[in-house]
Design a protein that fits this description.
Number of helices of chain B: 12
CATH class of the largest domain in chain B: Alpha Beta
Structural class of chain A: mainly alpha
Low-confidence stretches of chain A: none
Largest sheet of chain B: 5 strands, parallel
Helix content of chain B: 40-55%
Strand order of the largest sheet of chain A: 1-2
Radius of gyration of chain A: 19 Å
Radius of gyration of chain B: 25 Å
Largest sheet of chain A: 2 strands, antiparallel
Low-confidence stretches of chain B: 31-42
Number of strands of chain B: 14
Oligomer: heterodimer
Number of strands of chain A: 2
Chain lengths: 318, 436
């Protein structure tokens, strides 16, 4: 009987992330790694609908921003404990996913992508005109104390983001191998045929959008504690959405490993470039990488590994 | 049983494995270098860590600011350093992307082991504040409005002469100038960009308008991405205000000036908290269209602002900028460079006067308790780290010959009309209409 080792890998990974800061003390490592892990979690979350379902969502920064603002407001202005604020941020982002899903998941292709872009602008405008959320001036964040086991807040944030990334990966793995994943892949390949065969396409897309939104919201909820100050233009920056899309694309869209590989490789290159060469060409490098992979290896890095080592990549997006 | 593997496939596998090993070794080596190669110096040099916008939309500010810091470092080292310590600048480009700031600041602190930190602009400074405050290091903010509002870090010092009540002090001069006109104008129309600067400018403007007894007849806002202002300025014109108060960013300032000219919007006093006209590149582009506009400045080459050393600094800045390429961002250097240099002068004097290099608590207390003589005049700081008094200048563009850098070079083009202590000419009132 074949044993499923995934839960054990999950627990070992979580334990590793939790104890690493106890033994290794280099704050810069945690600051840089936090951003890389943030992109791992966002890319994995994006892949649920964009990769398995083939619906390209360019509204990542909207979900991320909703999570950031909800947690900042609850934690900062109302004094609600961080853990509750984080979960509430995920819940509100999931609700946002329901609203966006109901209104736009009947659209296909470029029309859905445009709708998600519009959603980002809509949320940004709401924040800009809401004084309780700091409007254009933004919100300054009051910092909680780090638990004694960790030396400072960034170590705690690293552990939290590590945990969110691992849980996101676990969920993605489970979905890929469950009826939900198979249904999403079926509708990605031919939505009408899948519908005809009884796949509840709209329901599955909505599930994926809500779960994706929840994870993105939870990721965003930690960002105010990392940055210390949030304002609508950097939080709802389309560069976040673009980065996530390209990382997933380069890693290998539609596979659970692809977003992890893409975010780790591209995120690390971006972090290294900003302290060695320059940040100036960050997005240019990302765009160039996307062009190269788009032309020579649409399956991404995962596709290259699979070709070299004999396994076929499962995901493609038309 | 043997599995047959094609020769081509075997080669590909080998190449892939070697490539992965090389990447891992290079990455590991690089990381090892960054985390272990630096040995903290206890005697020399003094390391200044700078996170600044060398690229992206704020490079217009960041590049001239960093150029001034580098000139200061060269001057200081040529003079033997600070108390025998040479100074070293370690600068990272955040590409005008705030999310990069915390990690870069942390790298400066924990890997590069810098002694002091420098940032530029409100948003970047606010993003640097949490990490900087946890480290206890002195943080110098070059420009920005109210960046310390959230944390109240007692070792933060802001270089621009805005004043202890930043929102109000930044703009009150415009309304005090208008209130001094006889007969006094009565109504004002606000136009503000929906970003951090625009909103703080509006808040301060509303307070100053109330203090001055002006009636606000229109209050317009627009997103920073807006490029066409014709309809907006037509609407503002229809309210027929006596004075216009505009809080805009560089590209919108250009659009608003062009649109106002297009719809022939001619209030009696035109201008406000406009960022943009002060940038030499935009001055040269707008040329005579700026004639008569009133906006703020921190330093201009007028005879009333001839602080010791500032004119020779400007000459050196222009030479260095031309040689280094910074001239593409700001060839004249009137806006950001003088106070970027002055902030570093302040730090030099503080370290020397306190004789406490290495003790940031003592140095912070010393800075709060003393006055520093710089090329930007005398600097003293309030508890918030802002200047303890305001010296925002209101200038009017006069005698503009055309659209070129030389048309704005030297005295007589940006005439100081407020405050009285630094006044270098009279306000031309009412606004004579658009030229150029």
């Amino acid at each position: 009987m074949k044993r499923n080792l995934a839960p054990m890998y999950l627990l070992v990974s979580l334990a590793f992330g939790a104890i690493l800061p106890v033994f290794y003390k280099q704050p810069y490592f945690y600051f840089a790694s936090y951003i890389v892990l943030q992109y791992v979690a966002l890319s994995v979350a994006w892949n649920l609908l964009g990769g398995y379902g083939g619906y390209l969502n360019f509204g990542t920064s909207a979900f991320f921003g909703v999570g950031a603002y909800v947690s900042a407001y609850l934690f900062n202005s109302l004094g609600i404990p961080e853990v509750i604020a984080i979960l509430a941020a995920g819940a509100v982002s999931a609700l946002f996913g329901v609203l966006i899903g109901y209104s736009s998941l009947r659209l296909r292709g470029v029309y859905f992508a445009i709708a998600t872009l519009a959603a980002t602008t809509l949320v940004q405008s709401i924040v800009l005109n809401t004084p309780a959320l700091g409007s254009a001036v933004g919100l300054y964040i009051r910092f909680p104390a780090a638990p004694a086991i960790y030396g400072n807040l960034i170590e705690l944030l690293f552990v939290a983001m590590f945990g969110i990334s691992v849980v996101s990966i676990g969920l993605s793995y489970w979905i890929e191998n469950s009826w939900i994943g198979r249904g999403l892949m079926a509708l990605r390949d031919d939505e009408q045929a899948a519908e005809t065969l009884g796949v509840p396409t709209f329901r599955l897309k909505l599930y994926a959008n809500v779960l994706s939104g929840f994870l993105m919201g939870v990721v965003g909820s930690l960002y105010p504690l990392y940055i210390g100050y949030i304002e609508p233009y950097s939080i709802f920056d389309l560069g976040i959405s673009f980065n996530v899309f390209v990382m997933t694309f380069i890693g290998g869209i539609g596979t659970w490993q692809g977003p992890i590989i893409g975010a780790l490789v591209l995120g690390s290159i971006q972090q290294a470039a900003s302290v060695t060469v320059t940040s100036q060409y960050n997005l240019a490098v990302v765009a160039a990488a996307m062009l190269v992979f788009g032309i020579f290896s649409p399956g991404g890095l995962k596709g290259i590994f699979s070709r070299l080592f004999g396994k076929r990549s499962t995901g493609t997006v038309n | 049983m043997f599995v047959q593997v094609s020769r081509r496939r075997a080669v590909s596998r080998t190449v892939a494995v070697v490539a992965v090993i090389v990447i891992l070794v290079v990455a590991g080596g690089g990381y090892y270098y960054y985390t272990t190669s630096y040995v903290p110096a206890t005697t020399t040099p003094i390391k200044i860590g700078v996170v600044i916008q060398e690229s992206g939309f704020l490079a217009l500010a960041g590049v001239p600011g960093l150029t001034a810091i580098n000139i200061w470092a060269n001057d200081t080292n040529a003079a033997g350093g600070i108390s025998g310590h040479k100074v070293q600048i370690i600068a990272y480009d955040d590409a005008s992307d705030t999310s990069k700031v915390p990690a870069l600041i942390q790298k400066l602190i924990s890997v590069d082991n810098v002694d002091y930190l420098v940032t530029l602009g409100t948003v970047d400074t606010a993003a640097a504040m949490p990490v900087a405050s946890q480290s206890g290091k002195i943080l110098l903010g070059l420009f920005g409005t109210n960046a310390n509002a959230g944390i109240n870090y007692n070792k933060f010092f802001q270089a621009a002469p805005i004043g202890p009540d930043p929102n109000y002090d930044q703009v009150r001069g415009y309304f005090e100038l208008a209130a001094s006109i006889n007969p006094k104008p009565q109504t004002v129309a606000f136009v503000a960009v929906q970003n951090d600067f625009g909103q703080q400018c509006s808040i301060g403007g509303a307070k100053a308008a109330a203090v001055g007894g002006f009636r606000i007849v229109d209050n317009e806002t627009y997103p920073p991405t807006q490029t066409d202002f014709t309809s907006l300025m037509q609407k503002v014109k229809s309210t027929n205000p006596d004075i216009a108060f505009i809080c805009s960013y560089p590209s919108d300032s250009v659009g608003i000036v062009q649109a106002s000219k297009g719809v022939n919007f001619t209030p009696k006093l035109m201008g406000g908290g406009m960022i943009g006209p002060q940038f030499t590149a935009l001055e040269a582009a707008l040329g005579k269209s700026l004639q008569g506009i009133v906006t703020f400045a921190y330093w201009v080459p007028e005879p009333t602002l001839n602080f010791p050393g500032v004119n020779s600094f400007i000459l050196r800045y222009e030479a260095v900028a031309n040689a280094s390429g910074a001239a593409a961002f700001d060839p004249l250097g009137y806006l950001y460079p003088p106070y970027s240099y002055a902030a570093m002068q302040m730090l030099t004097q503080a370290i020397q006067g306190c004789n406490c290099f290495g003790n940031n608590d003592q140095l912070g207390t010393y800075i709060h308790g003393h006055t520093f003589t710089t090329i930007g005049g005398n600097m003293t700081f309030a508890a918030s780290g802002e200047w303890s008094y305001s010296r925002v200048l209101w200038i009017q563009y006069q005698n503009i010959a055309g659209a070129s850098v030389s048309a704005f070079s030297g005295p007589g083009h940006q005439v100081i009309v407020w405050p009285a202590a630094y006044k270098s000419g009279n306000l031309v009132y009412p606004f004579a209409g658009w030229s150029g």
